[in-house]
Request: fold
Amino acid sequence: MSKYRIGLGVTGGIAAYKAIEVMRLLQKAGCDVSVAMTRHATEFIQPLTFRALTDKYVIVDDYDPENPDPIAHVNFSQEIDLLLVVPATANIIAKFANGIADDFLSSTYLASTAPVLIAPAMNTTMWEQPATQRNIEQLKTDGVRFVEPVAGELACKTVGTGKLEDVENIVRQALAMLDSTFQIPGSETRENLEPGTWNNKDLIGEHFLITVGGTREAIDPVRFISNHSSGKMGFAVAEAARKRGAEVTIVRGSTTANPPEGIRVIDAVSARAMFDAVMAELGKATVFVGAAAVADYAPAHAASTKIKKDGIETMTLELKKTPDILSEVSKRRKDGQLVIGFAAETNDVVTYAKIKMGKKGLDLVVANDITKQGAGFNTDTNIATVISRLGETELPLMSKREMADKILDEVLKLRKK
Ligand code: CTP
Reply:
C-alpha cells in the first residue's frame, strides 16, 4: 500500500506541464496520486498523459457520462491525505476563497477535509492584484498552505514574481506537510555530505530572509540619497542558500545586479519600506541576513513636489535616523532564529565589527574593509573576516559567490552547536 494518497489538482496555466514532474516525484516517493484537472488545464496537457501514468481515470467534469463514479467529488475528496494544486491560477484561488464549486476541482476542495497546499503560477500583475492577494490571505486564514511563486522570466516574456516554484521544492513541502521525516528518495540530507559541495542540501528546512542592496531615501519625487551597494553579496548568499536546499526570500532595495533566478523577491526601496517588509516576513524566517547597505539617515521631510532652485543659494537638508532593521530583528527574534549582519568598515575593521555584533545582538557578523582592493561595493570579489561566538575565520580574496558558501558554512556550524 502507498504511504500517502495525494489528490493533484491541475489548472489552466502554461506551467501545467510541470504537474507531470510533480506527479512523478510524488510517485517516486511512494505516494498514490489521483489527478483532477480543470477544463482549461486540458488545453495545455491531455488528461490521457496523467491517465497513462497513474493508471486512473482523470476527472475533469464529474457530469461526463464517461466518468465511472457518479459522486466522484465526494469520493475523491474523502480518499486523499492531501489536496495539492499545481499550478494554481488566480481563478481557482478565487473560487476556493469564495466557496464557489462550479467544476470538479472546486467542488472537491469544498468536499474535502484533507490539508491543502497550493502552488500558484501566473503573470505578475495578476499575482499582485489586490483581489488575488485578498483571496490568498483568506485561504491562509482558512488554513490553506501556499508554495509561493518565485521571480523569474515568465511565459509572457516579462520578468517578475509569478513563476511556479521549483517542482522539487513543491514536492518537498507537500511531503513535509504529511510527515516531517519523509524524504524524496535520492535527495540528500544534511548529514551525509560535506558543506559547500555542489549538490549539498545541508540547509533543507531553513528559511532565509535576506535584505539586499542599498536604500534610496527621497528628498523630493525626483532626488534621493543612496549609496554604492550593488546587491551582489546579498544575491550571492541568497543563491548559495537556495542551492543548498533552503527556502529564500529576498527583500531588495536598490541594486545594479540582477537577483538569482527562482527566488522570491520583495521590493522595498527605502529604509522604512525595507523595515516594514522585513517585519512582515520575519515570522517565517529561521535565519535573517542583513546584507543591505541601509541608509542610516533619511530626509526628515521629503518634499511632495519637485524642489525648485530659483532663489535658493544654499540648502540645508534635515536628516532623521532610519529604523535599524537588524537591531529590531534581533530584539524580536524567536527561539532558534539566527541573526547575521554585515559590517562595512574603513579602519579597525574587526574591532568595530565586534562592537556592532554586541550592540545589535548578532550571532555572526561578516566584517570587511571596503578600502582593500577586491573588497566592498560593486566588485565581484570580497575579502572578509567572519566573526561568531565560535571564533574568527579569515576569508581571503575570493568571488562573492564562493564567499557566500563559506559564510553559510559558518552559519551551519552555529546551527549545529
Ligand atoms: N542595518 C540595518 N538597518 C539600518 C542600518 C544598518 O539593518 N538602518 C544593518 C546592515 O544591513 C548591516 C549592519 O546593519 O548588516 C551594519 O550596518 P552599518 O551601516 O555598517 O552599521 P551601523 O550600525 O549603521 O554603524 P555605522 O554606520 O556607525 O558604522
Notes: The radius of gyration is 24 Å. Residues 400-416 form the longest helix (17 residues). Confidence is low (pLDDT under 50) at residues 184-199. DSSP finds 14 helices and 19 strands in the chain.
